[in-house]
Amino acid sequence: MGYYGKCIKVVIEQLDKFKPEKDRPEQFLEMASSALQDLSAQKRSFILEVLSGCLEYRKLLTIVVDAFYVRDGRFSLWADYNLFLVICYLATFQMEELGFQLFCSIIKSQSASKTSKFLRFFFSPLNLCLWIKDEWSLVYEATHVTKNWIDPLLRWQPEVQELVSQLEGESATTSFPSKTKIKATTPKEFNLTIPKPRAIPAPEPIPDVAHPHQIPQSTYQEPKKQQLLQMVKTYNRRKAEELLLRANMEELQCAMPRAHKERPAQGSRKQLKFRPAPRIQRTPKLTFYRPDNIPVKLNTATILREGALYQRQVEKELQRVDKLMDGCGDFSEFLKWQEKMQAKDREEQLAAGECRRLQGKLSHLEAVLARQNLIQQKKQKADQKKEETAALMLQCTQRRQQEDRCMKELVEQVIESQKNVKVAQMKLVKGRREIVQEVMEESRELLQRMAEEAREEQRQRCRLISQLRALETQPTRKGKLVDLTQIPGYGLEGEMSVVELQERLVLLREAQRRQEEEKRDQIIESKRAKSLELQNTVEQISLCRAAMGRTAALRWEEKKARAPGPPSTDERVLELRRKIEQRTAERRGRAAQPPGAAPRAGRPHPRAQEEAQRWEELERSRERQLRARQQSCGPPAARGLGAA
Question: Where are the domains of the chain?
Answer without folding.
Answer: 2-172, 232-261+278-288
